TrEMBL record:
Residues 8-387 form the Enoyl reductase (ER) domain. Belongs to the zinc-containing alcohol dehydrogenase family. Its cofactor is Zn(2+). This is Glutathione-dependent formaldehyde dehydrogenase. InterPro entries: ADH-like_C, ADH-like_N, ADH_Zn_CS, ER, GroES-like_sf, NAD(P)-bd_dom_sf. SMART domains: PKS_ER. Gene3D superfamilies: Medium-chain alcohol dehydrogenases, catalytic domain (3.90.180.10), NAD(P)-binding Rossmann-like Domain (3.40.50.720). The lineage of its organism: Bacteria, Bacillati, Cyanobacteriota, Cyanophyceae, Nostocales. It comes from the Bacteria. GO terms for molecular function: oxidoreductase activity; zinc ion binding. Keywords: Metal-binding, Oxidoreductase, Zinc. SUPFAM superfamilies: GroES-like, NAD(P)-binding Rossmann-fold domains.
Length: 389
C-alpha cells in the first residue's frame, strides 16, 4: 500500500510499504477513504517529537471502511463506515472506565521502556512516535486499529467523509478545550491560535454558552475565518500588545478563560531543531512558550486556563507565580475523543456545526509532502489538508 512515511525533520515521503495485518483478536483493518494532516503532525515534521524512526507511517486523523476483523470484534461488521479516534484506548482499564480515554493504561506497548526513562508513560496514539506506542498511522491506504470494538465509531448513512472526519481529533479537541474552561453564562473566552483546534474551540465555546470569544493569531486568513465563521473578535498578535488589548476589552479584568491552542510554536520556520537532543534524552525544551505565557498573564484572577496545545518534555519560563497568586485553574491533556464522538456527531447531524468549513485543501496522498509544506508554512491560505488515499 501507499503510506506517508517520516524520514527526518521536514522530510516526509510517500512510499510503498507492506499492508497491515490483524495481529490480535480485537484488531480491525480499515481501508482509509479520508485522512487529514494535523497541527500535531507538524511537531513531528518539525523534528520536535523524539523516538520517531525513519519509515514510520504518519497520521492520526483517519476514517474509512472496515475490511477485516479480528475474531473477537462483534459490534462492527466488514463494510461498516467508521471514524477512528486518534487516541488508542482499551476500554477496560481504570482510566477508560472513568471516561479518561486518552489516559488508557493498556494501549502503549512501549510503556515499560518509556516509564523507565520518563517516570510515566503516555497512552498509545496512531502515527505519533515510539514514545506513544509506535503504531503505524493513518496517512495511508490501510491501517490496523487495535481495540477495534471500542476504537471504531460507526457513521450513519447520509453524512459525507468531510462532515465526520474531524470527529477523529480536532473537533473533540476544540470542544474539550472549551469544556475545560468551565464556561458560565456571560463568560468571555480568549483563544490563542486560529488553526483547526482554535477554530473548533471558538465554535465550541459559543456552543457551551460563552458570551464573547476573542481569538488571537497572526495569520490574516485564519483571523478572518475566526471572525466570519466563528463570530469571534480577533487580535493580531504581531500588530498589538495582546495583554493590553485583552485588558481593555474586558474592563481591566481579563478573560474568564484562556485557551492555548498553539502548543509548541511552529511559526513556519524552525525555531530550533530539537530532534537530536530529544532523541538522546527523551526530553524537549523550549524557552519560548509565548502563547502559554500570555495565557497565564492575561487570564483574570480565579479564571480557567485550558491547554489543548501539545507540549513535550520540559518548557521553561512559565510564570507559575502569577498562576498561583491569581488562583488559576489549569486543565489540559490529549483529548478523550471516545467520550465526545456521539454528542458531537449529534451536533453535526442537527446542523449546530458543519466541520467542513475548516478544509482548505484536498490532495491525493501522493501530494502529502506538498500538503505538509503548505500547512506548516500556512501558504496558499492553508487551514486544513485532507488527503485522499
Ligand atoms: P496549527 O499549527 O494549524 O495552528 C496553530 C496556530 O497557532 C497557527 O495559526 C499559528 O499562527 C498560531 N500561533 C503560533 N504562535 C502563536 C502565538 N504566540 N499566539 C497566538 N497564535 C499563535 O495547529 P492545530 O492543528 O490548530 O493544532 C494546534 C495545537 O493543538 C497543536 O499544538 C497541536 O499539537 C495541538 N493538538 C492537541 C490535541 C490534543 O489532544 N490535546 C489534538 C490535536 C492537536
Ligand atoms: Zn491531530
Amino acid at each position: 500500500m501507499k503510506a506517508v512515511c517520516w524520514h527526518g525533520a521536514n522530510d516526509v515521503r510517500v512510499e510503498t510499504v507492506p499492508d497491515p495485518k490483524i495481529i490480535n483478536p480485537r484488531d480491525a483493518i480499515i481501508k482509509i477513504t479520508s485522512t487529514a494532516i494535523c497541527g500535531s503532525d507538524l511537531h513531528i515534521y518539525n523534528g520536535y517529537i523524539p523516538t520517531m524512526e525513519k519509515g514510520d507511517i504518519l497520521g492520526h486523523e483517519f476514517m474509512g471502511e472496515v475490511v477485516e476483523l479480528g475474531s473477537s470484534v462483534k459490534n462492527v461488521k466488514v463494510g461498516d463506515r467508521v471514524v477512528v479516534p486518534f487516541t488508542i484506548s482499551c476500554g477496560n482499564c481504570f482510566f477508560c472506565n472513568q471516561d479518561l480515554w486518552s489516559l488508557c493504561d493498556n494501549s502503549n506497548p512501549n510503556a515499560w521502556m518509556v516509564e523507565k526513562q520518563m517516570g510515566y508513560s503516555p497512552s498509545g496514539l496512531f502515527g505519533y512516535s515510539h514514545l506513544f506506542g509506535g503504531y503505524a498511522g493513518g496517512q495511508a491506504q490501510y491501517a490496523r486499529v487495535p481495540f477495534a470494538d471500542v476504537g471504531l465509531f460507526k457513521i450513519p448513512d447520509g453524512l459525507t467523509d468531510e462532515q465526520v472526519l474531524f470527529l477523529t481529533d480536532v473537533f473533540p479537541t476544540g470542544y474539550m478545550a472549551a469544556e475545560n474552561c468551565d464556561i458560565k453564562t456571560g463568560d468571555t473566552v480568549a483563544v490563542w491560535g486560529c488553526g483547526p483546534v482554535g477554530q473548533f474551540a471558538i465554535k465550541s465555546a459559543y456552543l457551551l454558552g460563552a458570551e464573547r470569544v476573542i481569538a488571537i493569531d497572526r495569520i490574516p486568513e485564519r483571523l478572518e475565518m475566526a471572525k466570519t465563521y466563528g463570530k469571534a473578535e480577533v487580535l493580531n498578535y504581531e500588530e498589538i500588545d495582546v495583554g493590553e488589548a485583552l485588558k481593555e476589552m474586558t474592563g481591566g479584568r481579563g478573560p474568564d478563560a484562556c485557551i492555548d491552542a498553539v502548543g509548541m510554536e511552529a511559526h513556519g520556520t524552525d525555531l530550533m531543531s530539537f530532534y537530536d537532543q530529544a532523541k538522546q534524552a527523551v526530553r524537549l525544551e523550549t524557552d519560548r512558550p509565548t502563547a502559554l505565557r500570555q495565557v497565564i498573564v492575561s487570564c483574570r484572577k480565579g479564571g480557567h486556563v485550558s491547554i489543548p496545545g501539545v507540549y513535550g518534555g520540559f518548557i521553561d519560563k512559565v510564570p507559575m507565580g502569577a498562576a498561583m497568586n491569581k488562583g488559576l485553574t489549569f486543565k489540559m491533556g490529549q483529548t478523550h475523543v471516545h467520550k465526545y464522538l456521539q454528542p458531537l456527531l449529534e451536533h453535526i447531524q442537527n446542523g449546530k456545526i458543519d466541520p467542513t468549513f475548516i478544509i482548505s485543501h484536498r490532495l491525493p496522498i501522493e501530494e502529502a509532502p506538498h500538503g505538509y509544506e503548505i500547512f506548516k508554512h500556512k501558504k496558499d491560505n492553508c487551514t486544513k489538508v485532507v488527503l485522499k488515499p
